[in-house]
Amino acid sequence: MLTAPMKDLIATFPLGFVASVTSEGAPAVSPKGTFLILDDETLAYGDIRSPGTRANLAANPAVEVNFVDPFKRKAVRVTGTATIHMKGGDQFAQLHPRWPEVFGSLSARIGAIVEIKITAASEIWTPPYDDGITEDEMITTYVAKFGALYS
Predict the structure, then answer these.
(1) How crowded is residue 19: how many other Cβ atoms within 10 Å of its Cβ?
(2) The 16-21 sheet, strands edge to edge
(3) Is the distance from CB of 30 to CB of 65 less than 8 angstroms?
(4) Most buried among 18, 73, 140, 146, using CB within 10 Å?
(5) pLDDT digits (tens, 9 = 90+) for 70-122
(6) How high is the mean pLDDT of the chain?
(7) Average pLDDT for 17-29
(8) 151 pLDDT more than 90
């Protein structure tokens, strides 16, 4: 389900904006910066400090996640079903060793791993691509824009 370009974007920019649903039926979006690709049909993030998102997903496991490359102005949207694996459980123990490789000491703070079985995945890109702009032109534009903001 995840294509090679989708996997590259997620691996490069593992900050995913997780959309869940509150108990009142309202949308809730929260960024999670510890995503890993487990396989072509499964993503997961290490939950460090998100009791609200965890509660939302426990009550309603439907989830969407959006990953954005701010320089290419491309994104990946993933829809799926979440399962929460709490620290101390067998699934947590099986999955958690993958996080220290990527996230170092931050992985020690993970209290749950939220596994997402993907039901749909799509690429999204900004309208200038429809008009013929190239990826290199987009990168040049946004490197300059972000550089000016932070110089």
Answers:
(1) 18
(2) 27-32, 16-21, 62-69, 74-86, 112-125, 42-47, 35-39
(3) no
(4) 18
(5) 999 999 999 999 999 999 999 999 999 999 999 999 999 999 999 999 999 99
(6) 96
(7) 96
(8) no
Distance in angstroms (rounded) separating the CA atoms of residues 34 and 98: 11
Amino acid at 30: S
**Pairwise CA distance, residues 105 & 25, whole Å:** 36
Q: Which residues contact 6 (CB under 8 A, 6 or more apart)?
A: 76, 121, 123
pTM: 0.93
Long-range pairs for 19-28: beta carbons < 8 A, 24 or more residues apart: 19/63, 19/64, 19/65, 19/66, 20/53, 20/56, 20/57, 20/60, 20/62, 20/63, 20/82, 21/56, 21/60, 21/62, 22/52, 22/56, 23/55, 23/56, 23/59, 28/52, 28/53, 28/56
Buried-exposed string 57-80: b where 16+ CB fall within 10 A, e elsewhere: beeebebbbbbbbebbbbbbbbeb
Among 106, 18, 96, 103, residue whose Cα is nearest residue 62 = 18
The pLDDT of 121-141, averaged and rounded, is 94
